[in-house]
Amino acid sequence: MKILMVSSEAVPFAKTGGLADMVSALSIGLAKLGHEIRIVIPRYYAVDRSSLEMLPGAMGVPVGYGCEEWSAVYTAKLPGSSKKNPITVYFIDHENFFGKDGIYGTPTEPDFLDNPRRFTFFCRAAFQLCRKIRWFPDVLHAHDWPAALAPVYLKFAERVKGSLGGFENTVSVLTIHNLGYQGIYYKDNFDYTGLGWDVFYNAGFEDWSMMNFLKAGMYSADKLNTVSPNYAEETKTQAHGFRLDGVLRYRSADYSGILNGIDTAVWNPQKDKLIPKSYSANDMSGKEAAKTALQHYFGLAEDPDLPIIGMVTRLTGQKGVGELFGPSYGCIWSICRDMKLQFVLLGSGEAWCEQEIMGLSSRLSNFRAQIGYSEDISHIIEAGADFFLMPSLYEPCGLNQMYSLAYGTLPIVRRTGGLTDTVENYDEGKGTGTGFLFDDLNPQSIYNTVGWAVWAWYNRREHIDAMRVRAMKHDFSWEKSAKKYVKMYEEASEKIL
Ligand code: ADP
Q1: CA dihedral defined by 277, 278, 283, 289, rounded to 10 degrees?
Q2: What distance in angstroms lies between residue 411's CA and the mean position of ligand 1's atoms?
Q3: Structure confidence at residue 316 (pLDDT)
Q4: What gap in Å lies between CA 312 and CA 370, rounded to an integer?
Q5: pLDDT for 161
Q6: How far does the centroid of ligand 1 lie from the alpha carbon of residue 18, in Å?
Q7: Mutational test site, ligand 1, from 350, 374, 378, 380, max ligand atoms within 8 Å of CB
């Protein structure tokens, strides 16, 4: 099959979260199965043009009613894709829209004012790109709200009689990576789509007096999915549906959950060049070396007997940081003062949280944090820590708990979304499981569950060792997930035939 990924992020070019990892890794997984994959993303300011190749000629993109904007198109090969079946990444270059710092915004302007236009333009450009290169996909796979207009254009403009042609046999799939981000904007932005106002209502853009990008994509895509089976079920309920649970129930025949894999070329303790010594379930000496390196890096006592709790996270409410670090509310003080452990964190995000965390490092001798983004340190934490904490409010899939399992670092997680699908709870009686789960998101539950893990560390080391081996044997490779995507593409194709 010919598959076009339409996404606002793809590693290594542009990343704010798991979406970027998933788009590139899934593409590589699908290419390995023999499919022809191409990716289109915007050419943000941070993507250096000199490392890309430019396609000759500018590309006109229709916008609004009868207007046109111009774009250049650059290309590059996706690193990690094979020579035999390489994956081409196309970059839509529009100086006004994408030539600024930031993918969706900057710290001073977190959501660019022109985001509805930026991503409307981007989705429209994806179709023009196919015309320009005379390559029409069988499947158009859109990701999250910034690409959600692609299925809408396909259904209401490109696959209909009287269109310019080329997409008659194309089907669309929309993957929801995080239902919390829907792209809701004033409906004055709708004219810029160039779609008639009948489509505003028929495609489900309407969201009270606003327009909702994701919702329109959810109504229009031939198939929908999210990134874990459990999150797919949760999002059909009012508690987790972010007001769109009704749409998901309405589309439930076409809606499923497919667990993300992890990039095992990058996240693999046997091959990882970012840790001092590689290791496997049969020889864990490399994990001990990583632990020492982690303690050394953060200036902690280099004691192998003290359990280390690690975190690598965006510092935002979704990740449970309020319950951990909220002033006079969070449990981090009690955890670090009451328990014999060390705590290390790498993260960036909300300003209050960054400030709170920076203050803690100087006041708690066993707590250390680095504010910022660092691939290198995230690998050292995954390998060197003994436990990995993710007290998420919701988690569509979650990658870090899978990285942790692969590195024999036992996750302590809230029972939600993909965390439920990937971490098996510890059973004290049998010594089974791969991590520690809790239900309620409050400081007391986090405190108790960290305490439970620390208790097992000091009193049931044989269980911890067995859990590590079990965790490391788990197969989270993309191969399995890529096959499920192929099945979904086939089902989507059958629907329109
Ligand atoms: P989300 O996409 O909601 O942030 P995921 O667990 O699905 O959560 O993916 C997060 C990804 O971003 C992981 O690859 C994680 O390692 C990475 N990440 C998050 N914060 C940082 C950071 N400060 N430094 C390095 N990597 C980070």
Answers
A1: 30
A2: 15
A3: 94
A4: 10
A5: 86
A6: 6
A7: 378
Return d(Cα 140, Cα 154) in angstroms, integer. 9
- Between helix 478-496 and helix 18-32 the angle, nearest 10°, is 80
Q: In sequence order, which residues have a C-beta less than 8 Å from that of residue 13 and are 6 or more positions away? A: 41, 44, 47, 76, 89, 91
In whole angstroms, give the CA distance from residue 41 to residue 51.
15
Residue for token pair 């209401």: 156
Q: What is the mean pLDDT of each run of 10 residues along the chain (497 residues)?
A: 98 92 95 97 96 96 95 97 96 96 92 97 98 98 98 96 91 96 97 96 96 98 98 97 97 97 91 97 96 98 98 96 94 97 96 95 94 95 98 95 98 98 97 97 98 98 97 92 97 88
CA distances from 20 to 5, 57, 328, 494 (A): 11, 28, 35, 29
DSSP-H helix ranges across 58-195: 95-98, 115-133, 144-147, 149-153
Could you give the CA distance from residue 223 to residue 154 in angstroms, rounded to a whole number? 13
Instruction: Report the run of H or E that residue 450 belongs to, with start and end.
Output: helix 443-459
Tell whether ligand 1 has an atom less than 6 A from the beta carbon of residue 9: no
For residue 19, give the ligand 1 atom closest to its CA: 2
Of 178, 399, 416, which is best to mutate to test ligand 1, by the most ligand atoms within 8 angstroms of its C-beta?
399
Alpha-carbon gap, residue 180 to 183, rounded angstroms: 9
Q: Is 226 in the pocket of ligand 1 (CB under 6 A)?
A: no
Closest CA to 221 of 148, 145, 126: 148
Q: How far is CA 206 from CA 118, 179, 240, in A?
A: 20, 17, 20
Going from the C-alpha of 72 to that of each of 43, 65, 149, the distances in angstroms are: 9, 22, 21
> According to the model, what pLDDT value does residue 167 have?
96
Dig out the tokens for 83 from the structure: 């020579």
Question: What is the distance in A from the centroid of ligand 1 to the CA of 208?
Answer: 33
Q: Which pLDDT score, from 0 to 100, does residue 12 have?
A: 94
In angstroms, what is the span from residue 17 Cα to ligand 1's centroid? 5
